[in-house]
TrEMBL record, chains A, B:
It comes from Elysia marginata. Signal peptide: none annotated. This is Phosphopantothenate--cysteine ligase. Pfam families: DFP. One of its GO terms (biological process) is coenzyme A biosynthetic process. GO terms for molecular function: ligase activity.
Length: 308, 308
C-alpha cells in the first residue's frame, strides 16, 4: 500500500456504522472548542480492534487489548493540562472508571430512611471518592472526550476524522497511538455472507495485511503533530530494531517499545536522536506507582521542547 | 472426537490458569450448599471464548458475545426460584449489572457536607434502585454465584468441573449452554511462541475443530440433568434442521434455535417431541419486555414436568 489511489479505494470499501457521523460531529465540537482556547491536546487510541470473518457477523478475529496503557496515559495527560480525545474500543478500560475494580452493585446500597437514595457503602468511600472527584473535575470541565469503536473499519474511519480535526493545532497536537490494531483483515468482497459452517474438520483462513495507516497519518492527515506509536513485542532480540525500522519507515516523532511481559515496568522511548528507558523498580510497583506517570511527564517535556 | 481416550488427551493438553483451583473450589462450595437444601439449580454459560494464536499471547480469535442472553436468563431463573451458577466470559454482561447502561462515574457524586459520602445522583435513583435491590436480594442470599473465564481452555475446564459438581442434583439440575464457544482452535503444539511477524503480506491460519464437549457432558459429566444448548444461525433455511441434527447427535433434552437478526424477539424450543416458538411482538419490545421472561417461564414448566 504505497499509492494514495490504493489508499483511497481501501477507505471507500470500509463500512461506516450508522453512528459514525454523530461520533465525528462530537469529536469535532470538542477539538474546535480547545482550538479556540489554544489548549494543548492529545488524541489517544486505546484497546483492540475486531475483524469480522463473516459479513453477517458471528465470528471475529480480535486482538482484544483491555486498554490499560491508554486509560492510564489519559489520566496523566489530563493532570499535565492536556485536553484528551480518547478513542477507545467499546467495553475496554476508560480513564478513572477502570479504577473501580469490583462489581459496582456489590458496593452500592439502597437507603430508604429518608426517601430513596443509593449510596456507596462506607468501607469503599475513601478509595472511590478521589476517583469520582477526578473524573468529574476533568470531564465536567470539558477536558475529556471519549469516543468508542468496535471494528477495524470503524477505528480507521474515526482515526482519520480525529486526525483531520486536530490539523489546526499544528505542533500543539500530540497523537498517541496506544490501540492494538489488527495487522490483518478480510476484505469485504472475500467475506462469506453467512456463518462459516464447521463440518469439514479444519478452518483455513487467509487474511490480508491491514494497510499501515501511519504513513498517510503522518504525511497527510496531521503532518505537524507530534506522533507517537507503540511497538509491543514478545522477543527482546528484535524489539529495538523493529522500533527503529518503524521510525524510519513512517517518519513520525517517536516509538515507545515494550515487551509483553515487562510492559508495566519498562518502556523505551525511541526517536531520531533519543533512546531513553523509563523504568519502575519492584518497590515502585509494590507501592502502586504506574509507569505511565513518569512516561507521560517526560513525553510532555519532549513535546514542549518542540514547541519552543 | 468419539473415543474417550482422544477426549482425555485433549483435556490433558489444555492450559489451566493459576486461578482454576480456587474457582473450582468456589463453585463446589456453592453447589454443595444448594444440594443440602434440595434446591433446583441451573448452570448458565454466557459470553464468548478466546482462542490464542500465539503461546505468548498477543492475538486471539474471538467470538466475543456480550452475553445478553445469558445475563437476562440468569435473572429470570432467579425469579423462578433457581440457584444460578453463572459461568461467564470476563468483561461480558453480568446479571442486573448490565442494566447500568451508563459510565457509572457520570451518575455518582461525592458529597462532603457531613463527612464524605458518595451518592447516585437523584435523577438516576428511581431506575437504579430496583436493580441494586434485586441484585442484593439474590446475591446476598447466596442464590447467585458468578465465575468468569477468558480462554477456550479455561471455559472447558470450568464447564467440566461445574457439571461434575451438579451430578448429585440428578434431574433437578438444568444446564443452559448460552455461551458462544469457538468452533475452532489452534492446538498448543502448533502454536508459534512469539508474535506472528506480519511481513510477507498474508496470514494463513489453519485451525482445528474444537471437540464437541456436549457429547461427554450429556453422557458422562452430568447424565441426568436437563441440558439445553443454543443454535445461533444467520440462514433461516438451515436453522431448524441444524437444531434437530444437534439433538439427535448429542441426545440432550433441548435446543433453542434462533437467528442472529431476530434473536431478541423469536426463539424456537426444540426437543424430541416439541417444536414451540416463543415470540415477542414489536409492541412487547417497545414496552421493554424481554423474550427471556416467557422463555425461562416455559422452560421451568417443562423442567418441572420431567421431575414429577
Amino acid at each position: 500500500m504505497t499509492s494514495s489511489t490504493k489508499l483511497d479505494s481501501f477507505f471507500q470499501e470500509l463500512t461506516a456504522p450508522d453512528s459514525f457521523e454523530s461520533k465525528k460531529h462530537h469529536l469535532e465540537v470538542f477539538t474546535s472548542r480547545h482550538l479556540e482556547k489554544s489548549n494543548r491536546i492529545v488524541l489517544i487510541t486505546s484497546g483492540g480492534t475486531t475483524v469480522p470473518l463473516e459479513s453477517k457477523t458471528v465470528r471475529f478475529i480480535d486482538n482484544f487489548s483491555i486498554g490499560r496503557r491508554g486509560a492510564l496515559s489519559a489520566e496523566y495527560f489530563l493532570k499535565q493540562g492536556y485536553a484528551v480525545l480518547y478513542l477507545y474500543r467499546h467495553r475496554s478500560l476508560q480513564p478513572f472508571h477502570h479504577r473501580i475494580d469490583k462489581n459496582i452493585l456489590d458496593i452500592l446500597s439502597v437507603d430508604e430512611t429518608n426517601g430513596t437514595s443509593i449510596k456507596v457503602q462506607a468501607p469503599f468511600v475513601e478509595s472511590l471518592a478521589p476517583v469520582v472527584q477526578q473524573y468529574h473535575r476533568y470531564h465536567d470541565n470539558g477536558m475529556l472526550c471519549q469516543v468508542d469503536f468496535t471494528t477495524l473499519d470503524e477505528y480507521l474511519l474515526l482515526l482519520r476524522a480525529a486526525c483531520e480535526a486536530l490539523r489546526g493545532f499544528d505542533k500543539s497536537a500530540l497523537v498517541y497511538l496506544a490501540a492494538a490494531v489488527s495487522d490483518f483483515y478480510i476484505p469485504a468482497a472475500q467475506m462469506p455472507e453467512h456463518k462459516i459452517q464447521s463440518s469439514n474438520g479444519k478452518l483455513q483462513l487467509s487474511l490480508e495485511m491491514t494497510p499501515k495507516l501511519l504513513k498517510p497519518l503522518v504525511k497527510d492527515w496531521v503532518p505537524n503533530a507530534f506522533t507517537v506509536s507503540f511497538k509491543l513485542e514478545t522477543d527482546p532480540k528484535i524489539m529495538i530494531s523493529k522500533a527503529r525500522g518503524a521510525l524510519e519507515n513512517y517518519k513520525h516523532q517517536m516509538v515507545i517499545a515494550n515487551l509483553l511481559h515487562t510492559r508495566r515496568k519498562e518502556v523505551v522511548m525511541i526517536s531520531a536522536d533519543l533512546e531513553e528507558k523509563v523504568v519502575l523498580t519492584d518497590e515502585d510497583l509494590a507501592a502502586g506507582k504506574e509507569i505511565e506517570g513518569p512516561l507521560i511527564a517526560r513525553l510532555v517535556q519532549i513535546h514542549a521542547e518542540t514547541l519552543s
